[in-house]
Amino acid sequence: MSKSVPAFLQEEVSGSVMSIYSGDFGNVDVKGHVQFAIDYVEQLKEFHIFVSQCKDLAIADVKKQHSDPYVKTYLLPEKYKLGKRKTSVRKKTLNPVYNEILRYKIDKALVKTQRLNLSVWHNDTFGRNSFLGEVELDLGTWDWNDKLNKQMNWFPLKPRTPAAALELENRGEIKLALQYIPQPVGGNKTPSTGEVHIWVKECNDLPLLRGNKLNSFVKCTILPDTSRKSRQKTRAVAKTTNPVFNHTMVYDGFRADDLKEACVELTVWDHNKLANHFLGGIRIGLGTGKSYGTAVDWMDSTLDETTLWERMMSSPNTWVEDTLPLRMLMVAKLTK
């Protein structure tokens, strides 16, 4: 039985997408080691990475002769579905000590299909984080029963290959809040439909594509509606990789059932006179791969993105907030 098209939709459901890409990682010569251990905790159904310390890291800030390192992890190829984890930043040291556990809620069978990518980065005040080296472990061939593998081990940091750089590019993150209001007060709107409010607060650690210039803004579309009149955007904020927008967007005509079929696409762009350059984006929905019974490419939300949407659906008239990593998107094409 086919589902009816919602009030907020002006165009047909569409899976049409286009691809956009670019990035930068600094030019520090990789050296040093990282000490960590991994384990799967059956009782919690969690994969744990215990990050102990690094030693003899490369100098990222040549003027000050130090680095401000932190450690970041991904599970590949499920990078976007499972998200990244990272330690705190240690200031002004080439031998940072962390003693932190990075956790993934994941079935062991899925862990065995992944590669662990653990990388070390220098945290730059202006957002130009420098890559300091990485380690990759194939979890499919890992001996989980070997007690030695559960102990702390030192691993040499290695440079990143161009192909890996493309796969693991850092695009920064976006802080936002969502609210669903089933029955808005006032106005002439149909009482059976509600509003979705999207509060774009700020972005952090945006990539710099044009030297040290950045003039960023955020676009919003609620798919499957790709009509131009459905697109809203913030003002542009210049000269910072950590822009604060505090901009709220309101979309009406939503029944509760429409929330299961819709997806909020937020994309961040660098604006200049000639063209806008894509920096990264998120898609907040249930990530089912379908909308109103039609298979669509854009219903591809990550676990964290889906969790935020589910929280909004289960808590009407309440703001729910999160900070989500920006990712490469196949951006939905606009229709007229």
UniProtKB/TrEMBL annotation:
The molecule here is called: C2 domain-containing protein
Q: State the organism of origin.
A: Chelydra serpentina (Snapping turtle)
Q: PROSITE patterns from the xrefs?
A: C2
Q: Which domain of life is it from?
A: Eukaryota
* Residues covered by the C2 domain: 30-155, 170-299
Q: Which GO terms describe its molecular function?
A: neurexin family protein binding
Kindly state a single biological-process term from the GO annotations of this entry.
Answer: exocytosis
Recorded hits in InterPro entries, A to Z, give:
C2_dom, C2_domain_sf, SYTL1-5_C2B
**Which Pfam family is one of this chain's hits?**
C2
